[in-house]
Amino acid sequence: MKKVISVVGARPNFMKIAPIHRAFQKYKNHVKHLICHTGQHYDEKMSKVFFDDLELPKPDFYLGIGSGSHAEQTAKVMIEFEKILIQEKPDLVLVVGDVNSTIACSLTAAKLHIKIVHVEAGLRSFDKMMPEEINRVLTDSISDYLFVTEKSGMENLMHEGVPDSKVFFVGNVMIDSLAYYLNKTNGAMLSKFGLEPGKYVLVTLHRPSNVDSKEQLTKLINMLNRVSEKRKVLFPIHPRTLKNLKEYNLLDEDNKNLILTDPIGYIDFLSLTKNAELILTDSGGIQEESTYLGVQCITLRTSTERPVTVEIGTNQLLGTDLNKAELAANLVLEGNKKQGRIPDLWDGKAAERITEILVDELINN
Ligand code: UD1
């Protein structure tokens, strides 16, 4: 029996591992697929609700790392994950995305000569101020199997000299989850917040570049207040953002058209994404989900590691100049919509492709 340990740590990891876990079940007589949760995200609303919504089993290993500085968080994951690897001796370690748990676990595996699978490889923002960019570059450089979601990823890895034999263009596992759960979406959240389908703006913000400085966060809230004069705005707040809103005294709940709420679970958030008129975000994943759903998206960042969403999708990359973003938002709300289409291989079958390749490697090589 071969053994694969997949790693989850932070919110954007759960919906990527769920379809991979499901796809591995087809091979359960040959491959044991185990899940390790580092505990980088630990709140009920940042973690547990996703296990429930995505029908993920209780993790086989829970490291309980929690928050901390980058070095602390990464180092703690490494110390605990090394113990698991020494005890379990897996044939492969599979990591997804670009969070601190991704680099921590892949680096630990590399030092123990365990082969590494990176799902969502090759994405590059070319902005080393983003911790995720450092995590992406480093993880790819020590991975043995690199599974890529969009053409730009193939080009980036080629330019970095990664041999073709390690790289596979398979599509997007996050879209696998979206396609799988789309028919479970419902109107509960719209009723709860008094929203009409196609007539509200959905906001998510958590990048340090947007929410860590008082100046930028103040400008953002002012802009959201102005947008809320035109449409209801729903803003589920990430813990990092909430902490800063409180610290800077920006948490004002008097505006009934700017609805502030806790982080929202997977299926409820999907229901809200699908029905939004416009999304304002700095998330990576939401750029892709909105493109798949054909929903208008304005990304408040200067760079994106997911350029396909801008090139052929419904995403607009507008930097952190909020005047520009507000102008673009107003245009969308006046009916000027960007036409988009779905990128190649975002068809709900990426995890099947990945497991087929991996099982073939494990059994035949
Ligand atoms: C992390 C990822 C980011 C991803 C995001 C999604 C890295 C470097 N960043 O950023 O790529 O887009 O997750 O959410 O890995 N906190 C809680 N409860 C939790 C988790 C966090 O209260 O369950 C608070 C803590 O105060 C913590 C802060 O949020 O200090 C930030 O958490 P952290 O995991 O360091 O980074 P994120 O900003 O969530």
Q: How many domains in all?
A: 2
Q: Cα distance, first to last residue?
A: 14 Å
**CATH C-level name of the largest domain:** Alpha Beta
Helices and strands: which structural class? alpha/beta
Bound molecules: uridine-diphosphate-N-acetylglucosamine
- The share of residues in extended strands comes to 15-25%
Tell me the name of the CATH homologous superfamily of the largest domain. Glycogen Phosphorylase B
Oligomeric category? single chain
Apparent shape: globular
Unreliably modeled segments? none
Q: Count the helices. How many?
A: 16
Order of neighbouring strands in the sheet with most strands: 3-2-1-4-5-6-7
SSE topology string: EHEHEHEHEHEHEHHEHHEHEHEHEHEHH
How many E strands?
A: 13
- What is the CA-based Rg, rounded? 20 Å
Written account of the structure:
This protein is α/β, with parallel strands linked by helices and 365 residues long. It folds into two domains: 2-172 and 346-364, Rossmann fold (3-Layer(aba) Sandwich); 184-333, Glycogen Phosphorylase B (Rossmann fold, 3-Layer(aba) Sandwich). The chain has 16 helices and 13 strands. It has helices spanning 11-24, 44-53, 70-88, 100-111, 131-142, 151-159, 173-181, 188-193, 208-211, 214-227, 239-247, 266-275, 285-293, 308-311, 322-333, 350-364; strands at 2-8, 31-37, 61-62, 92-96, 115-121, 145-148, 167-169, 200-204, 232-236, 258-261, 278-281, 296-299, 315-317. Helix 5 (131-142) links the parallel strand 5 (115-121) and strand 6 (145-148). The longest helix has 19 residues, at 70-88. 48% of the residues are buried. Uridine-diphosphate-N-acetylglucosamine is lined by residues 10-12, 40-43, 46, 67, 98-100, 131-132, 206, 238-240, 243.
